[in-house]
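Entry 0007
Protein: methionine--tRNA ligase
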Amino acid sequence: MKNKFYITTPIYYVNDQPHIGHAYTTVIADVLARYYRQKLGDDNVYFLTGTDEHGVKVAESAAKQKITPQKFTDNISQQFKDAWQKLDIKYNDFIRTTEDRHQKIVVNILNQLKQTKTPQGNDVLYEADYQGLYCVGCEKFITEAELVDGQCPDHKRKPEKLVEKNWFFRLGDFLPAIKKAIEADQLIIYPPGRKKEVLGLINKQNMPDFSISRPVKSVAWGIDLPWDKEQKVYVWVDALSNYITALGYPDKELYQKFWPADIQLLALDILKFHALYWPAILMVLDIPLPKGLYIHGFFKINGQKMSKSLGNVVSPNDLVKQYGSEVTKYLILSQFSFGSESDIKINDFPAKYNADLVNGLGNLINRLTNMIEQYLDGDIGLTKKDLEKSLNISKFLSNINQEIEELNFKLALLKIWNIISTVNEEIDKNKPWELAKNNDQQKLKKLLQDWTKYLYNIAVSLQPFMPQTAEHILKILTAKQIKKPVKPLFPRIN
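Output (structure tokens):
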């Protein structure tokens, strides 16, 4: 079905609270979901997010708090839901890997993997001993070469030396087909540099198979391997399956309608799992691959890597408390291009807020509605139908829509704010207050109508980004009598 859109965020690991990195990915998904709902209708868009709730880290964190892993995950998962509510994120479903609906389908998937052969006629799954260095923070085995001063570079902790019996997925037998799909853009990997990176991984000699299980003695908190109760399902196989378990694979109407996913958003650190492991699993299940993986880079905060030790982890809740949900989304998305390494300049937020929202959009709304009220008694002489006919004035909307569809959110917002600046400049240049003084009513009304049409277009273009703000502006412009807002939309921050 062409006229559908299915977008996913990664499901977020519940060993920690929501931070701005989680918020960035989820806000992008929300913008795209809102945009495509306008284009395709609500029933043809599905937006999935959720939480990944099994594994060693979760069990350790729960033990530190002296509560059960389930209680711990219930608490953190709810924090994610609360954060998204505060940010006005409108997802269709929130999947949790501890839910029965997810776990039952994961068991079904595992049984299929166990019973299937690779294209070369080998068993997809096999049991073997594994010896290596395991980083609990990464939830994966790492090599000596990856260590810095004997520690994992990401988690600053020494990995554990493990020798254990695992079940493995025979990845190597699927790499030629995965490579072919990526090269032909049947599986789009964006930005292009990440596609090159994945193909480089595939071209490496002796790409290892991956573990789909861990012994119960190592990982007590997880789904039982259906044919071996001494093993738990490895957290990544469990987590990756959420994109189809949430749709009710293999039978449910949602799955039939929405799979394959159109856009799967993820961060750079989980690229390998999504670009290699996930397609291989889908190939065994004879399920179409997702259409595209879209990867954003790592975040810095005011030029420094975001980390607990530096005390610079930013909570989206704190930003919403200070700026509100609409402004928070604008400030996050307008700072950098999708896919690039991202420096979130929190210290610049107040100045940007005052410049773009107070002096820019807020000023335009106030001065235009004030002039319409003062010079035309609030009657602009345009019906709602007239305003709707003005949509895409100077191909403005189609240009913005193209940027959104190409995930150029910063550029889309820049183009909207360029129009805001242009209209403000036109007002200064044409001096409507002098036209009113000279009683040039015809020219005055024509100018005010033109600027109103532009503001209407601006509001419509902002609907995916700032839906409440857009709705407020549209209500003002389509009222029987246009009045200047009693309170400014964006109060100045000193």
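Curator remark: The mean pLDDT is 94. The two ends are 51 Å apart (CA to CA).
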